[in-house]
Specification:
It comes from Gloeophyllum trabeum (strain ATCC 11539 / FP-39264 / Madison 617). Residues 27-209 form the Macro domain. By secondary structure, the chain is an alpha/beta fold. The chain has a single domain (3-20, 33-204), classed as Leucine Aminopeptidase, subunit E, domain 1, CATH 3.40.220.10. Helix content is 38%, strand content 16%. The chain contains 7 helices and 8 strands, in the order βαβββααββαβαβαα. A 6-stranded mixed beta sheet has the order 2-8-7-4-6-5, with helices on both faces. Strands 1-3 form a two-stranded parallel ribbon. Strand 7, helix 5 and strand 8 (187-192) form a beta-alpha-beta unit. Helix 5 packs across helix 6. The structure holds ligand AR6.
């Protein structure tokens, strides 16, 4: 059964139900901004079920399919997705390309290539992962898409540590939504598969998207 946008909880909903808990003021990476709380979601489950404008695929440079979320997306979209991907001539690490969604409930797929993690060249890997989020968001905005759902890029087969990768994902999404380019984007959905990944997002989301109450607490102190 496809999952509609209205069924996906926003950060504001998650604070209300105490699934997210406010962090102490000194830990915050950004000051509270009320409007952002309705534009970010956390969803645990299968990204291929989401009925949104675009889902992001953690692909490889060939764009011709693979395991993990890439395999799940190609399986659910059907062979026409592979046919369109064949026309794209691959994609560089940190870059992104867009296709239609075919049999998916999602209208489009944004294919991005995360870095393969290694402890050497860490700065470069981090910049490449940040670029995946930036270029995917920019592609969505350029195509007038209103919602984008991201899996946790590079943190499966490509081995990027989930906490480091999540800080990068949250930084880039915050910057983009708060910029002029990002104004037209209504919702970014972080999709997690495992409970461990969900715990990491639940711990870090409040640092980047703090609730308004933290603002009044900060003002009071
Ligand atoms: N829905 C949401 N998230 C999922 C799903 C799903 N259906 N399936 C897996 N995940 P990975 P990578 C999560 O390995 O690390 C492919 O072979 C998964 O738990 O899919 O960027 C490509 O072709 C993890 O948290 O992507 C590349 O060769 C996250 O998606 C390579 O893997 C990403 O894991 C890319 O590796």
């Amino acid at each position: 059964m496809p999952v509609r946008l209205s069924q996906i909880k926003t950060v504001r909903d998650l604070f209300r139900t105490a699934a997210l808990r406010p962090a102490s003021a000194e830990k915050l990476r950004y000051p509270p901004k009320a409007s952002l709380l309705d534009r970010v979601s956390l969803y645990q489950g299968d990204i291929t079920q989401l009925e949104v404008d675009a889902i992001v695929n953690a692909a490889n440079k060939s764009l011709l399919g693979g395991g993990g979320v890439d395999g799940a997306i190609h399986d659910a979209a059907g062979p026409e997705l592979l046919e369109e991907c064949r026309t794209l001539n691959g994609c560089e690490t940190g870059d992104a390309k867009i296709t239609k969604g075919y049999n998916l409930p999602s209208r489009h797929v944004i294919h991005t290539i995360g870095p393969v993690y290694s402890r050497s060249n860490l700065e470069k890997k981090a910049e490449q992962l940040a670029s995946c989020y930036r270029t995917s968001l920019q592609l969505a905005a350029d195509n007038a898409l209103k919602h984008v759902a991201f899996p946790s890029i590079s943190t499966g087969i490509y081995g990027y540590p989930i906490t480091d990768a999540t800080h990068i994902a949250l930084t880039e999404v915050h910057k983009f939504l708060d910029s002029e380019h990002g104004e037209k984007l209504d919702r970014v959905i972080f999709v997690v598969w495992s409970n461990t990944d969900k715990d990491v997002y639940e711990e870090l989301l409040p640092l980047y998207f703090p609730p308004e109450d933290s603002a009044s607490e900060q003002e009071a102190s």
